[in-house]
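Summary for the funding panel

The consortium committed to producing paired sequence-structure records for every protein in the target list. Below we show the first two records in order, beginning with the earlier of the two.
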Amino acid sequence: MNRGAETKEQTAQRFVARSVFVLVFFVLIAASLLARAVHLQVLNKDFLNRQADTRHLRTEKITAHRGSITDRNGEPLAISTPVDSVWINPGELATAVDRVGQLAKVLQLDPEALKRKITRSMDKEFVYLKRHLGPDQAHRVMALKLPGVNVQREYRRYYPSGEVTGHLVGFTNIDDRGQEGLELEFNHWLSGESGAKRVLKDRLGRSVEDVESIRPSRPGQDLRTSIDLRLQYLAYRTLKAAIQRFKADSGSIVMLDVRTGEVLAMVNQPTYNPNDRAQYSAERYRNRAITDIFEPGSSIKPLVVAAALESGDYQPDSMVDTTPGYVIVGPKKIKDSHNLGRISLTTILARSSNVGMTRVAMSLEPEQLWTTMSRFGLGSLTASGFPGESAGLLTHHSHWRPVSQATLSYGYGVSVTPLQLAQAYAVLGSDGIIRPVSLVALDQVSEGERILQPETARAVRRMLEEAVRPGGTGTKASVAGYRIAGKTGTAWKSAVGGYSEDKYFSIFAGLAPASDPRLVAVVVIDEPKGDLYYGSDVAAPVFADVMSESLRLLAVPPDALPANDPLDQMQAMSQ
């Protein structure tokens, strides 16, 4: 009995001892965990926060919205639309390499090539997979819930008017930086400043919360150009039809507002669509109206006549003897199609007499002729600021030989761009004032610089009207209801060893309405094929088509209505 009671008592004591031991053990464990928790969360919390931030906090770029480009009336020429770009963290995506094929299928990429790209980039944390996806495709990518796959919001440039304004507006690269045209020239103005924010991401790399703003983004500023999209489309359509009709290599049209110097239309053929990157080649996207030079032929004669009138030795009715229909200057024989005899300066311009112009030019001092040409802007850049603009070529008079002065009088040995020629004719339209050319809509018009006496400019305009009337070379440039002042030009193209005898530039430059010019336009057609190649047959009708519609669209009152038609007079007054 005593032995059994003792055994039970010993068992109870051992149980109590073990219970105390276990209790003490767990108390010690709890105390240890509590101490560790206090250590980590109170004494060493900065370390843990840094570790958490390293794993879950990321800095994201906030892409800035690029400014829009519009025409003078607010019609969009270039806008930015939101798109998504897919990027990866290769190290994280490698943990799900068995699902890379699914990602490749959605992105329409080769699975093996994608795997090689991942393995080659394991030392990087940011690699683009595909740029500028549509929202639907980006959503399908994120629906895969692959680790290390992320989407970044960007903007892609879109050009609503396509090839109609392609040469002028230019384009951006995939990073939305201007590469050509106005996009390049005004990139600093259009580009915004990207911002940054800190975000919290889950284990799949998806942003779940914006933590703080580091730097706000600044959107780019809009650019309002001087272009009138209505006139731009009209010029584009007319030039394209002319290039096709005459099977020409290329062509350009430039239209300026005489009163302000603003470019209202500028088109080229062949052209390109800036929305299609496959068409990006220098041959297609260069703006020929600003970058390409040509010898203007007879279209330069009004500037020589202006120099003659400014000399004080000539008047519009001054007589010049062109007999016997040719003149020899040095080794060169300059001739007209037939002997015009003794004719006035006005007739020389209207009939485009090379002999008459040569005699006039040779009678002027070389410095005086060069100075007048230079003041018209020949041999100098315009103020357009367009990338790649050419200054043309006007050799200094100190390097002239007599034959140089002679050939200059009818447009050889000097080179201009279509824009330069338009600016020069605008001087005649503005009564002798040259204004800077502007591709941006102006809030305030420049006063310009006077380079001709008003009487000289008006006299040349009246003489140019004779060139468009019956008997002149530019009759096909006439516009019903309006007085037109203009000049044709047909210039041989330079070739190896001299000039080609079957390749031409066909040119027409003119002003309307001649009584109070509002518009100046220059048409240049390069290498028309077939029987028609003169400026009077090729370029003049193009000018007439563009100018007649432009005057109507701008509601410019006619200045040549029949005096005996009261209905037309009432309609003109109502405008």
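The next record, for a separate protein in the list, is shown here:
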Amino acid sequence: MKKVLQKSALRELTIRSLGVIDSAEVDFKDGLTVITGETGAGKTMVLTALNLILGSKSDADFVRSGDERLVVSGKFNIGDTLQTIVEEAGGFVEDGDVIINRSVTNQGKSKISLGGAVTTTSQVSELAQELVEIHAQSSSARLSKPAVQLNLLDSYGDYQDSAAKYSDKFIEFNLIRKRVADLTSQLKVRDFEIAKLTGFVDDFAKIAPKKGELDQIENEITKLGAVEELNAGLIQALGIISGEDESPTAALGLTKKILENLKGKDSELDSLIEKYSELIYEFAENSSDLERYLAGLGADPARFDYLQNRKSELNGLLKKYGEGSDRESAYENLLIAGDEASSRLEDLQGGDSKLAELRDESLACFGKLQELGLNLSASRFSVAKKLSTAITSEMVLLAMPNAKISVQVTTSDGSKPENFSATGLDEVLFLFTSHTDGKLLPLSKAASGGELSRVMLSIEVVLAKNSPVGTYIFDEVDAGVGGKAAIEVGKRLALLAQNSQVIVVTHLAQVASWADNHFVVSKNESGSVTQSNILEVSGADRRKEIARLLSGQEDSKTAQEHAGELLDMVAMSRSEMIG
């Protein structure tokens, strides 16, 4: 059974001094959000900001001209699993929200923090894989990688338990193989190794070092060597504290008695008297502790000699067998080696019989691994056909009526251990053709940039219910399409937004008309973008923006009528899609 996924969502994006954007803050909601605006108005800077937040490479050229640094931050609402990852990295999560902050100076120096804790871009990038999926024509190229295609197929399939069992068995098999290889190697020099280990085991057992013992011995030696000095010093100190003539103890006791008589006259003074009384009590307790220590202090020449001899034994063992960069690590390594030595010696003394036992264990484990691997392959073959059909059906609706995807699973020979990998015996390849009877070829060879973007959109719509990713961001997904095909692209994005948050940068009215939330980015007279230049539009203002996208003339009555018709048509299609 699949687990219920807790999906993340982008809530806020703050931008300072990035490209043409001087200062802006955008609040994002669930559903489909579109960002439109005139060319050069800074729409893509929103994507640049997100890429920086999510750990992509920084560039000093991103910093707004004349400014010292850019600062971008994003607030994400995350589930329990991601919250644990953030907190283990030292970050802070408040009410399920985490803030990722990135700054870049005009000298190219970059700094990134996760939940308030300074971290690395690589660590944030790992987290980002389950936060946001960004698609532009350039980033869609990753879809061509076989490893990515295998992950996509596994995300669609309902065999996560089988994959997990296979992975566990693969790890177990490799551990046994390593033991076989190590023992085989050791048996070649068995006599030498047995003699070496026997000597070590005997010496270790004879001395029997304990964790922390060396430090404890040295501390006690230091103490016993200074008994007279400690005794004299404590007697002198306690004599001053508790002496008969004007001792601090007597003075403090008299002061306490006087102050106790003043209690009840003023609440503020009462609290001060209480604090003073507590300090006197602590002082008296510490004095008693010193007296008890003094009472138990005494010279012990026999103990001192024993400790010196014991220290010499431990240092001798450490000098002979210890390995490490310093004494502390060498001692720890010695204890670890002592714990392992007996079992290693037992393996070697067992000789060929022990090796035969391990090989039998390896064969049994490999048999189970083969069974799990072939079952996993069978599941992939079955799911590959379903995924091929589902993606092809989506592509037909995205202005590619003759396109076809075939998810090909190639399984290696299961009789050879070297053919097994951490993910199984299979290699997955997405084959594509854009026309009827066309030859199916790998995506990287057969799909154009625009086609690759729409293939990715088709895949995301199909996989969205099973994907942990909470936010999808698309740029140029509508490249090369228009008219009815563009409407279908918008519809597919709206369908994806039923399961995840979707943010789209577009220049097509047919796509923008499907938005649940619509932002317009514009430049002011100075050519920059500020907070007032990123506005959420609705009603008449949104209709004007749709009209501008349709004709470039937002004030045109005809364009606005066309925009109204488009919005009404989309609203009707939405109700049919939902109900």
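Regarding this second record: Residues 188 and 504 are 65 Å apart (CA to CA). The chain has a mean pLDDT of 86.
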